Structure to design on (351 residues):
């Protein structure tokens, strides 16, 4: 802007000098036109300044960590009579990150025209990447003066972490742990009296409490009820994300740790629960995970987590939510992606 203004003033001074040196009507017309140019430019920019309308609907909603993301900025000329020269400014950065990269995009729109400018950036950390279009500069006829119009358009790209298996051992204690559930296994029996797994003939050492008396009377032989095995959440993954631990790299490590732990438990056929504190709602968010789809859905929603500031209230809410509920093991993941089992650090994870 300063360079272009200086160029305009230089042309004005040179034309004025030639006007006084030579008596020519053509120079008089040129001088008047140059002198009135700022006014004409201001009127033009006042009319068409908001005709260049941007949109970020071509920004993909999801990406992968350490992969490139291609985002499109669509700009449409709402004027059907004049062409527009514009310059758009983008800010790209992870939510909660201290630094954000800037991109400058330029183009020329024909009357009622539309174009999409593409920019490619690398998703270095997983989490929510924010793309913000703050403003657009619309230039006048000769590109000397411009009008800056604020738009504040935003889009988000959820950068998913890598789901990698981690080394751990599922012990017999966890395999046979029975947690309360509304769903029951069709392949194994358990000790839940509320659901029957199967009915079979009586064998020695069977408890009399398990005899199905009505069916036994109809079949004229003793029949025994085998109880079902409830498919409850036997392991709890609690995400303890605190404000004092907030960082872009730490949150990325947190997501990668939770994703890897959850997908490993899925591969081991271990139904588990992921939970975290939602401060704005003052509640514990809980997700039951039994397959890959539910694991991905949990990570997708976990990206929206906000760091906890009131740690005391979070602790009270946690105790109230899980009062009376038992787990074979509780894995706590902090804001840096570090894990503890039942409150203690470990070298090798045995559940």
């Amino acid at each position: 802007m300063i360079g272009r203004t200086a160029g305009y003033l230089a042309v004005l001074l040179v034309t004025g000098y030639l006007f006084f040196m030579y008596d020519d009507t053509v120079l008089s017309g040129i001088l008047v036109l140059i002198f009135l140019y700022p006014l004409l430019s201001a009127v033009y920019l006042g009319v068409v300044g908001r005709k260049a309308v941007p949109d970020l609907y071509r920004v993909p909603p999801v990406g992968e960590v350490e992969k490139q993301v291609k985002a499109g900025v669509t700009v449409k000329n709402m004027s059907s009579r004049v062409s527009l020269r514009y310059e758009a400014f983008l800010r790209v950065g992870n939510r909660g990150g201290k630094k954000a990269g800037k991109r400058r995009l330029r183009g020329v729109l024909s009357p009622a025209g539309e174009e999409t400018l593409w920019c490619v950036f690398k998703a270095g950390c997983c989490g929510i990447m924010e793309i913000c279009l703050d403003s657009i500069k619309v230039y006048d006829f000769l590109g000397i003066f411009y009008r800056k119009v604020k738009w504040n358009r935003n889009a988000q790209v959820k950068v998913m972490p890598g789901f990698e298996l981690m080394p751990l051992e599922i012990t017999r204690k966890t395999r046979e742990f029975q947690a309360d559930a509304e769903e029951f296994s069709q392949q194994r029996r358990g000790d839940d009296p509320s659901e029957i797994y199967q009915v079979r003939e009586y064998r020695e050492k069977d408890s009399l409490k398990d005899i199905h008396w009505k069916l036994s009377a109809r079949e004229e032989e003793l029949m025994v009820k085998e109880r079902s095995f409830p498919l409850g959440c036997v392991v709890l993954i609690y995400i303890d994300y605190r404000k004092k631990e907030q960082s872009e790299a730490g949150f990325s490590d947190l997501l990668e740790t939770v994703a890897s732990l959850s997908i490993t438990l899925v591969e081991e056929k271990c139904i588990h629960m992921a939970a975290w504190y939602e401060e704005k709602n003052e509640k514990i968010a809980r997700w039951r995970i039994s397959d890959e789809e539910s694991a991905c859905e949990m990570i997708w929603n976990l990206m929206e987590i906000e760091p906890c500031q009131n740690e005391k209230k979070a602790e009270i809410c946690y105790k109230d939510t899980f009062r009376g509920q038992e787990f074979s093991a509780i894995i706590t993941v902090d804001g840096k992606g570090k894990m503890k089992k039942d409150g203690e650090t470990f070298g090798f994870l045995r559940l």
The helical segments are 2-21, 25-48, 172-175, 213-219, 248-267, 292-302, 311-321. Residues 181-197 have pLDDT under 50 and may be disordered.
